[in-house]
Amino acid sequence: MKSPLLLASLLFSSTSFGFGEDLCYATSGGAPLNCQPLPSGCAPGDASMACKAAAVNAAATAKGQSNGARSLVHADATFLLAQAVGFDAVSAYWIAAYDQATDLSTFTPRTLNGGAVSDGVARTTKSISGVNRGNFNQGGVLFHFVTPRNGGAMSPDATVDGLHPDTTDVDEVLLANLRAWVLQGQGAGRGCTGGLTTPMANGGYALGTGCYAFSGAPGVISGSVAAVGPVAVPISSTTGPQVMDVETGVLSTGFDEYIGTYAFEARAGIFLHALADRISHHVCTDASSSYGPLGPQRTFTIDMSNAECVQTMHVLRHVWETGVDFSALPAREQTTPATLGEVFDALLEFATARGVASGPNSQTLALRTALVSELSAALETYDARARAIAVRDVGCTRSYAVFPGMPACGTP
Q1: d(CA 17, CA 141)
Q2: 207 in helix, strand or coil?
Q3: 10 Å Cβ neighbour count for 115?
Q4: What is 288-316 written as a DSSP string?
Q5: pLDDT-derived band of residue 201, with 50, 70 and 90 as boundaries?
């Protein structure tokens, strides 16, 4: 039997974060695999120990037979929704690409069989390893486990609704800070590690005039996230501008110059990833606490060691996010439809700010409702290839561009 620490390491390095990659490219070069298949005999919503173990084993088996992967939520659906609100296909692609790269550090599109795309190199993102889901020492993991602050209380607020987070609420610290980073661009107090800034008059730490510091020195961010059984994985960082890429040392304050032409799209994609992961992980993070600064080091503590964050349950919840009947799940577990709606709203806000939003509000609301319904139905498809085609076809019916590497509209 694997030790708890080894199993924790495997889980945190696998497809168990956010909307984990659900479409895995087969090493054989054939049809893509289901990265997170619902185990046989396990109904959606069945959280038994047997189903948790089966889900972990199934995901590990799929990963062992795969050579790379992507999330149809972070990549394909985001690409489609960005076009729906008015972004052209080029901007929509870069928004979706950086959304996916937030999990993987870089993203290059591939065909459904895992082959190269003709212009794949030109469509490859810059490295953003600083916000990678496995970066526990420079704040990257906090983009994936997004914990509300609850006014700095040491216990969670039972009324928090992470299924539909308010991105303007200063207690949604990282989301509020990243939203300002997208809309206002890089600068003091935007793109801060953990979203933490100097405090405002109302006590919020998300929208201050600079990243948090005390007497000229950064504060400490310390915490943990539950892994397996009694094991918790430590989180350690300092406040200040977020490290966006580890190798180059690029910070959020120099991000636009690093990315170049599509810096706005990159910022938007990173925000959308954090938003989707806030919803994906809300059962865990709503039950967690974020408080401080306390002590001589001015320590902010983020405690995600509760039972709802244990990684076996975490993996099972991601199994329920694609390839299953969402209506069969408890309401709090229906994270995919909720995410599609919230991502649409955020994209519409960004498109409006950029002056590219399309259609009057009445039509936009109807389009939102239709797309959430149609994309949810497509993402319920069990077979990985058929699921990708179903998502594509939601856009094809509206003459949207097809995600790079996907077969053309009308092609099976």
Answers
A1: 9
A2: coil
A3: 11
A4: -EEEEEETTTTEEEEEE-SGGG-HHHHHH
A5: confident
Q: What is the pLDDT of residues 109-162, one digit of tens each?
A: 999 999 999 999 999 999 999 999 999 999 999 999 999 999 999 999 999 999
Round to whole Å and give the CA distance between 335 and 161.
Answer: 12
Strands annotated E in 128-256: 213-214, 217-218, 220-226, 232-238
Helix intervals (H) in 65-186: 78-85, 89-104, 173-184
Buried b (16+ CB within 10 A) or exposed e, 210-233: ebbbeeeebbbbbbbbbbbeebbb
Strand 299-304 to 220-226 pairing:
parallel
From residue 60, alpha-carbon distances to 11, 27, 37, 345, 384 in Å are: 9, 14, 11, 34, 16
Long-range contacts for 48-54 (Cβ within 8 Å, ≥24 apart)? 51/316, 52/312, 52/313, 52/315, 52/316, 53/312
Place of tokens 């009308």: 410
Exposure string of 146-156, with b = 16+ CB inside 10 Å and e = fewer, is bbbbbebeeeb
CA distance 47 to 308: 11
What angle (nearest 5°) sits at the alpha carbon of residue 144, between those of residues 140 and 147? Answer: 105
Strands 289-294 and 299-304: antiparallel
Q: Which tokens is 260 given? A: 């170049």
- Give alpha helix (H) positions in 212-310: 255-259, 263-280, 282-286
Task: Judge if the upstream peptide bond of residue 148 is cis by omega within 30 degrees of 0.
Answer: no
Kindly report whether the global pTM for this prediction surpasses the value 0.85: yes
Q: Which residues of 276-310 are buried (b: 16+ CB within 10 A; e: fewer)?
A: bbbbbbbbbbbbbbbbbbeeeebbbbbbbbbebbb
